[in-house]
Amino acid sequence: MNHRNPPARIGLVAATAAGRRHADTLAAAWPHARLVEGESAADALRGAWAECDAVVAFLATGAVVRILAPLLGDKHSDPAVVVVDEAARHAVALLGGHAGGGNDLTEQVGAVLDARPVITTATDAVDLPGLDTLGWPVQGAVAAVSRAILDGEPVRLVADADWPLPALPPNVQTTDEDAVDGGYRLLVTDRVVPLDERTAVLRPPSLVAGVGASRGVPAAEVGELLHRVLAEAGLDPASLRCLASADVKADEAGILSTADALGVPLVTWPATRLATVDVPHPSEVVRAAVGTPSVSEAAALLGPAGRPDDATLLVGKTATAMATVAVARHAPRGRLAVVGLGPGAADLRTPRAVAELRRAAVVVGLDQYLDQVRDVLRPGTRVLPSGLGAEEERARSAVAEAVAGRAVALVGSGDAGVYAMASPALEYADERIDVVGVPGVTAALAAGALLGAPLGHDHAYVSLSDLHTPWEVIERRVTAAAEGDFVTVFYNPRSRARDWQLGKALGILAAHRPPDTPVGVVRNASRPSERVHLTTLTTVDPTAVDMYSVVVVGNSDTELVAGRMVTPRGYRWRS
């Protein structure tokens, strides 16, 4: 599942008071959802179909089918339709499952109304990635190849390069041979290839078209030249990642219109950067006019990431009266998602984290964290576990897998950027890979919610682990937090080998705060063995704290209210 945002325009159709109440709930949650009225429910449904990107109908499924049947076109143009029963017990994906976002919308309707999503798309039902859900255009015999994958029949995967695909089932076998023998094939290529009833083609975003133009160039001239160049080279426009040009062409209407028509962005570069790229056909005339000897070839090679070394010029500059086009193929970029799993409870794991875990072909992490998510991973996912203390090894391993062109998820608890794996991984992750950060609920937030509202004003996080940071540095930071009167959250507070640092840190804070300052100790927040203890600076017992705990020390204004730890925000209305 992609877990996309709801469609831009959602039409809500209801015939009964209960249906209208449910529709009001959705409208309150989604600003772009509105109740569509009509002389009858059928009129309202037909109106929503014509006007909206998606429809949620609080009607009987049979009635919706009969009303919409004459209006059906195809899955690429029809709006998504979700049907919800009178009691809002079920949300049924009726139309537009993958292509129209109907499955995603069904999940989202279910989440808002506390209804059970009913999705009958075959790949979703058996937990396989649909070919039309990978984010790339797919052509050819998509249904036939998808059915073969589902049925366990042999499917030959032939890719021009190692693209970061998600995990695929064992019956999809990678091969370098592209022979046609009557079997099912899944091709991953930017080339125009003959299609048959057993071949589907995924179009990777491998091509960049560099475009130069005279001021006022017609969009038709740019578009016709680009399509002719691609056709003559045997390249499919669906694999265009972007158009690229010089900064001075960033507002050129003819180029912008062409990019919009193709559904790709326009990337532009300064002339000084374009001038650094070696091209086969430099022009002094272009240099005099623009400040670089090449626009189209240099821009095509730079692409969106500015890495000409990873690109191959397939078509040199080709010109008409007012436009110039060149095309380069860019090597695959691996994909590294750094995923925060939250504090432990499954319902505090974000939908985006789940989507990234299901998008990955390789998942790397601490063994105990991977055990939490094995039920989420798709069949065929390769899991690379490691033990405590192997952070650098995990980071290097995840980056190496991504550099090899794979789709990788590196997991950690809480938020991956807070005392977790994002920092060590990004120290090694260079421009050869794409990096996606997935935030998670960090331990401080989980603990704060259990304690009350201790983080209501300025606060500081400090790790007391001196394995990688000298104690002198930690002590200086704790002192600064004490002098600044910050609420202070201690991560990694105490272990068997480090049994004195927490007492020392609490002593520093006690020198600057009242003795009855509230202190909260939360162990295993959100997990079955969760424990919450409220105490004060004078009575807190460091020996009761371990590495599964988070210690929250209030500031001089923090107080206990009805057994909850509260740090006042200091709003003016309070006075």
TrEMBL record:
Keywords: Cobalamin biosynthesis, Methyltransferase, S-adenosyl-L-methionine, Transferase
All residue ranges annotated as the CobE/GbiG C-terminal domain in the record: 207-328
Pathway stated in the Swiss-Prot or TrEMBL entry: Cofactor biosynthesis; adenosylcobalamin biosynthesis
Keyword Methyltransferase carried by entry: yes
Annotated Tetrapyrrole methylase domain residues: 336-540
Domain Cobalamin biosynthesis central region residues, every copy: 133-204
Single GO term (MF): precorrin-3B C17-methyltransferase activity
Keyword Transferase attached: yes
Residue span(s) of domain Cobalamin synthesis G N-terminal: 44-124
Pfam families the UniProt entry points to: CbiG_C, CbiG_mid, CbiG_N, TP_methylase
EC number: 2.1.1.131
InterPro entries from the UniProt entry: 4pyrrol_Mease, 4pyrrol_Methylase_sf, 4pyrrole_Mease_sub1, 4pyrrole_Mease_sub2, CbiG_mid, CbiG_N, Cbl_synth_CobJ/CibH_dom, CobE/GbiG_C
GO biological process per UniProt: methylation
Protein name (database record): Precorrin-3B C(17)-methyltransferase
Species of the source: Micromonospora zamorensis
Gene: cobJ
